[in-house]
Amino acid sequence: MAADKKIISYEPMIHSIIQQLNILYDKDEYMQVGRIAVFEAVNKFDSSKTSCSESQFVYTLIRQRLIDEIRKVSRYQERQSPAEENIIEIQAADDSYKLENTAQKVLNERECQWFTLTLSGYSLKETAELLKVSVSTAKNIRKSARDKLQKVFCYEF
């Protein structure tokens, strides 16, 4: 059977998995991720290496890919979408100079560098590389800086 026909035959399965995962938005994009997963699964499947059927193998791969995509989208939205009650964002909108000056007074040197790089749009991984620290250390710097800034701006309101 041709790859196109295989993909089409597994579309009800993709749709079912999307329903199970409670995906409500961007269903077309998730359907496409599922179709790609089917294509890869059909090409990878080797009955001599596994005890499961092709449909079980395809199901598992589709489900894993969709969950990976959900996590990827979630991480992107967390990084790109402003939080509803993010005090720093509210303050920055009002007076960005005050924010930067306050940050320089409150934060230590590494935290201030993290803050500057974050405002410039660098990702956490890129920031860690520029600061010459591990990603875990960069996360600790971020947490410390956020805590200090949040305390300062909570008192100002």
From TrEMBL:
GO molecular function annotations of the record: DNA binding; DNA-binding transcription factor activity
Any one GO biological process: DNA-templated transcription initiation
Xref: Pfam families: Sigma70_r2
Domain of life: Bacteria
Key words, A-Z: Transcription, Transcription regulation
Domain RNA polymerase sigma-70 region: 9-75
Family of this protein: Belongs to the sigma-70 factor family.
Function text: Sigma factors are initiation factors that promote the attachment of RNA polymerase to specific initiation sites and are then released. Sigma-S contributes to the protection against external stress, thus playing a role in cellular fitness and survival.
Protein name: RNA polymerase sigma factor SigS
Native species: Jeotgalicoccus halotolerans
